[in-house]
């Protein structure tokens, strides 16, 4: 394994692939003071593609026997709609919440699915197109946006803003402010600071766990793909090297098949939590 002709150890290889193409110094640690250009590019591109596919399915929909693509989208829409009806009981709110949940599911699924691509493919293309010289970076190009904490926390904060919006819309600003200081322990003035603190902790904990859950699962899955790639990189014409090469193919295939379930499940869990949190914003304590 090498980067621009330089041989890398196993540790250097993994650290290199955990680096982002950034507006400043590359680092494998999440840093909210800089912009991860690769995560921003891929998340926006996949968001546009996801919306395009849904728009095309709606535009090409027919009343007769649907094609495979239309049937798949209809099944997905009906699944999301049924989940939204069971959680968000306000029919007017569901006109926005259900399409939002559908978009969240498709978008996160597409971002997660980038993990199924060969880990060295896009860094190799990036490096050999000479773009590293333009951006002042080597072959940093991380293509799984949901393995970036800044992306997953951005999604979670977006859900939080939607929840705050519905809290004020459904309960009114005054009603929601009253709820913040009177729930969950009661309306006694001595309990108002405690109630407010508990409400703020609840919003913070839900948002943090929402973003961290998706990030943790996708980050761990990405690391496993890196380790499997190392097995293939250690292939040599020797007994041990041949077994490592075979193990690379077998382990990579098994993990990729299993990972299809993981990326779908994580998109579904994020969507369901979005619906649950928005549904809670409609409930009065």
Describe the overall structure:
The structure is a single chain. This protein has helices at 10-17, 37-59, 68-87, 91-113, 121-128, 131-135, 149-182, 192-233, 239-282, and strands spanning 2-3, 6-7. It is mainly alpha-helical and 285 residues long. It has one domain. It has a two-stranded antiparallel sheet. Helix 4 (91-113) packs antiparallel against helix 9, helix 7 (149-182) packs antiparallel against helix 8 and helix 7 packs parallel to helix 9. Residues 1-5 have low confidence and may be disordered.
Task: Give the SSE layout.
Layout: E1 2-3, E2 6-7, H1 10-17, H2 37-59, H3 68-87, H4 91-113, H5 121-128, H6 131-135, H7 149-182, H8 192-233, H9 239-282
Antiparallel strand pairs: 1-2
Write down the secondary-structure element order: EEHHHHHHHHH
What portion of residues is helical? over 70%
What count of helical segments does DSSP give? 9
Q: Strand arrangement, largest sheet?
A: 1-2
- The poorly predicted ranges are 1-5
Distance, first to last CA: 58 Å
Précis, in short:
The protein has 285 residues and is mainly alpha-helical.
Features:
single chain, 285 residues, mainly alpha, two-stranded antiparallel ribbon, 9 helices, 73% helix, globular, disordered N terminus
